[in-house]
Every structure is written in structure tokens, then in C-alpha cells.
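A further point concerns the way the authors explain their paired sequence and structure data. An entry of this sort, consisting of the sequence and the corresponding C-alpha cells, reads as follows:
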Amino acid sequence: MPAVATVQDVSKLYGRFAALRHVSATFEPARCYLLLGENGAGKSTLLRVLAGLLRPTLGTVRVLDRPVAEVHGRIGYMSHGTMLYDELTARENLEYTARLYTDQQEARACLTPDEALRLVGLDPGLARPVAQYSQGMRQRTSLARVLLSQPELLLLDEPFSNMDRASAERMVALLAELRRAGRTIVLTTHQRELAEPMADTVLMMHNGALQTPDTDVDVRRLEAQ
């Protein structure tokens, strides 16, 4: 089965500063990749390059064997901020996002706002604006917005940010379910202990470079089978 995404010798330069340094990686279907590293290691930059939000200075990026610009609708990117309108309800936020899918083929493939909210365990009929939601509910609403287009590749930047433990564990269970359904997930987090149980591969970044993959996760998974 072909790779969902490939990054080949990618560097991202800002003047003399290298946010990414010769990064190469392959992301396989229906797998979860946990991207770890200190602040400023390049994790968020790599996600943004994969999402097509940043153009690499050097190197190539392909998603579903095509240039990123041709497959935006098949990539779901959840940034560190929730990107929600606080004065709107969850359904209204998703209805607004759904209207951005102007291509007829993309629009037909989308979930309805109600379907996306139910998928993440939220009540579509909840009339409160998202400003009154808990952080866990806000994060799930943000994930529902990302899932509207039913993307094959999910790129999640700190999805457990500011969540209490119970909410974070519910989010982990939801992501594990999405992975089992066939989606490829690449996520960053400072809470390794939360995400590692569902990860197939752990990737470490330091100073913009990708370190040797941590294969212990795969070994433990195989031993348990």
C-alpha cells in the first residue's frame, strides 16, 4: 500500500535560522506517529509543511502521491489554537466551515456538521456558544471541524492542550478509534504518557532535525499480539 505522505530532504529557512534541517520521513496508512521534542525543535513547522501551510525552502513533500496543493481537502490540520468563533455554537462553527468547501466533489464527500459533532461525542443541539464550553469540549469541537472533510491524513498540534486528565483520555480514545478506521495521524504533544499507548512510531526532533525513530512502541505492540 502506498505511503500517505512523504517528506524528502526538507529544510525550512528563515534567513540564517533553519526551522527544519534536511528532514526525510514516510508516513504509512492507518498508523499513528507521535512527534516529540523540546519547544522550538521544529515539530509544528513540520506539521505546517505537511499541511501545505508552509512551503519548504528545500526538498519535496507529497501527500497521497500528489503535491500538497492538490489534496488540501484530504488533509486535516488542527492547530495549537482551536480556531473557533467563540460567539457561535459548535454547530454554527461547523456550518461556517462547511460553506468553505465550494468544490462540489469535496462538498459531497463531507460529513454534515451534526455527523461530525456526534463522531467526537458532542450533542449537535447544544445551544451554548463555544465560549462557555470546557477546554475538552472546545478541543473536540475543533477536531470535529477538522473531520468535516473526512481527511485521510490528520495533523494534530498539541490536541490535549489545557485539558484535564479525563478529557485528554477521552480524546486519546477517540483518536485511537479514528486510527483503527484507517486514518493516518501525526500528532505533537508534551504529554508523551498520554499518546504513546496508541502510537505505532515515536519520532524525535531536535534543532529542526529528525532523530532516529524510536521502535520500542512497535516492539511492545508486536509482543502483545
Q: What stands out?
A: Strands lie at 5-14, 17-27, 32-36, 58-63, 66-67, 75-78, 153-157, 184-188, 201-206, 209-210. The radius of gyration is 17 Å.
